[in-house]
Amino acid sequence: MTDLIKLRGVDKYYGDYHALRDINLTIRAGEFFSLLGPSGCGKTTLLRVIAGFEGVSGGTVMISDKDMADVPPNQRPTNMVFQSYAIFPHLSVGENVAFGLRKSGLNKADKASAVEEALSMVGLAGYGKRAAHALSGGQRQRVALARALILKPKVLLLDEPLSALDKKMREHMQVELIRLQRAVGITFILVTHDQEEALVMSDRIAVMFAGEIGQLDDPETLYRRPNSRRVAEFIGKMNFLPGRVTATGDTITLDIAGFGVTDVPAVQAPEGATLGEAAIGIRPETLAILFDGEKASRHEAAAVVDEVVYYGDMTYYDVRVNNVPEPLTIAMKNMIGRPVLDVGAQTRIAWDERAIVVF
Amino acid sequence: MKLRVYAIAYLIFLYAPIILLPIFAFNDATIIAFPLSGFTTEWFAELTQNRALHAAVQNSLIIAVCTAVFATILGLCAARAGAMSDFPGKKGITGFIMLPLVLPEIIVAVALLVILRQVLGLSLGNWTIIMAHVLICTPFSIAILNGAFGALDPSMEEAALDLGESRWSAFRLVTLPLVMPGIISSMLISFTISLDEFIIAFFLTGSNPTMPVYIWGLLRFPKSLPVIMALGTILVALSVILLTIAEIFRRRGVRRAGGTDTGGFL
Ligand SMILES: Nc1ncnc2c1ncn2[C@@H]1O[C@H](COP(=O)(O)OP(=O)(O)OP(=O)(O)O)[C@@H](O)[C@H]1O
Ligand SMILES: [Mg+2]
């Protein structure tokens, strides 16, 4: 894949406020890229910098190896789906979608067929004559997509396009967007604060905190090997246990509170390991409750159930283990013949040193 | 119960004089007093004969139309600047622009008269009244258009820009149609204010009086009182119709831009 967008040392100030701090980022042609981060971390600002709605205070933005410093938004090969969708309420659906073709020089018939094609791409074939202000949220979102895609941009920028939709519609549109992106082959840059959405949809994800990129990786690496505690805490849920590093090198020797001594390879300490105190991260689904007669394949520990949250397909247990200060969360799939334990039940839990991350 | 009595008394106090206008406009007597003596349209007929009145009406219409156009253009610029961009001192400047709304008209009139006649040595005419009327109408225009722009999603214009339009055509194709109801409402209200305005016109009028000034002149002749009543009836009807249309457009504008109504002048 070739590099399409390059940001080098991009800084952005709003007055005294440092909204983007030295952003270095390369986005490849044809990939589904997500900007993920908590509210106010600068996702929208970064997207608007790429679109050209905000100038930069320092650094360069390159698209297809061309410096964008003096290129206004209407001449950039980018199109944007706004968070509010910004559907023009005084125009029909068809006129909205055709809006970007005004300067294209196409004749009426060609425009009409382009509009129809764009509308059917988003599943709204035949909606051209409808009034735009009478659409539902999901339909507006599709019109905004069609309106941007009709121009065949190199990059489609999407600012939290699904956040206004209800859960069912959102999940449906996630799948639709992935399908659409594969079909058109356009680079998508999606802004979201929903980590699940980012994991489901993206080829790569940049996690942002307070104007900086904390980690940029594919979803699996991001989830399994978060490079810092704040990324680990933001993406999914992670238990943290106090522990000590007693030996470093290709393998790291750990003494984990309540779990005892174990060795892990150095890759499981993404920030590097130093002798002394460390935080040991374990995801809830890599721990397991051992029911009657089950044996742990690696290690086990005694525990007492502290809290039970039943989700239907899953049950989340908070359990207390001796010498571990905080309760540990364990996610268990509910299966036939597997009981749901009560609060206060004595049990054993299984853990695996291959699943832990050392910070 | 008591409250209702007050409310009714208040409404009578407020509207009785206006209701008396059409009553006496159709009354067949030159004296404005009860009992009524019979129905006539004579006074309205007399209106159509009066050359001087026609000239005054024509003057007033020219002034009102020019005022409506200029005040609305100024209001449009101010409201747009206020809605779209942040600049240093924005709050202070907005305050100053809205000041004429609460300034006594007599002060504005006297100040303008002094400046135009004494300081600049210019002669008075319709254009001096237009200038003064623009001054007092612009705050109303800004208030109406602020509502229209405030209800407008700022990403609308950005979306047009993003789709390849220039700044000007993005404004023309998207923003302008969306605030058009506000513009029409602003023009109608400015027109009505200018048409009815007396004090400034009285001070700044040249040799050709405006309609309110002409009416004031007629008051010296008791015989012409019923004619004034007839004229007043027409003016009240016209004002009510124009303001109603203006309010309809203002509400439609807020709705079209997707906002919730936060109240207007009516
Ligand atoms: N025009 C502006 N003027 C001043 N500060 C701004 C401006 N736009 C954004 N900011 C500030 O910059 C920071 C980043 O804003 P941004 O909109 O990029 O956040 P975000 O990550 O998109 O958040 P959200 O998830 O809430 O949309 C915020 O603290 C915001 O207050
Ligand atoms: Mg945002």
UniProtKB/TrEMBL annotation, chain A:
Example GO biological process: putrescine transport
Domain ABC transporter, residue spans: 5-235
Coiled coil: none
A GO MF term: transmembrane transporter activity
PROSITE patterns from the UniProt entry: ABC_TRANSPORTER_1, ABC_TRANSPORTER_2
Organism domain of life: Bacteria
Protein name: Spermidine/putrescine transport system ATP-binding protein
Organism: Loktanella salsilacus
From TrEMBL, chain B:
UniProt keyword terms in alphabetical order: Cell membrane, Membrane, Transmembrane, Transmembrane helix, Transport
Any single Pfam family the record assigns to this protein: BPD_transp_1
Organism for this UniProt entry: Loktanella salsilacus
Keyword Transport recorded: yes
Family statement drawn from the similarity comment of this UniProt entry: Belongs to the binding-protein-dependent transport system permease family. CysTW subfamily.
Protein name: Spermidine/putrescine transport system permease protein
Matches recorded under CDD domains: TM_PBP2
PROSITE patterns: ABC_TM1
Biological process according to GO: transmembrane transport
Subcellular location: Cell membrane
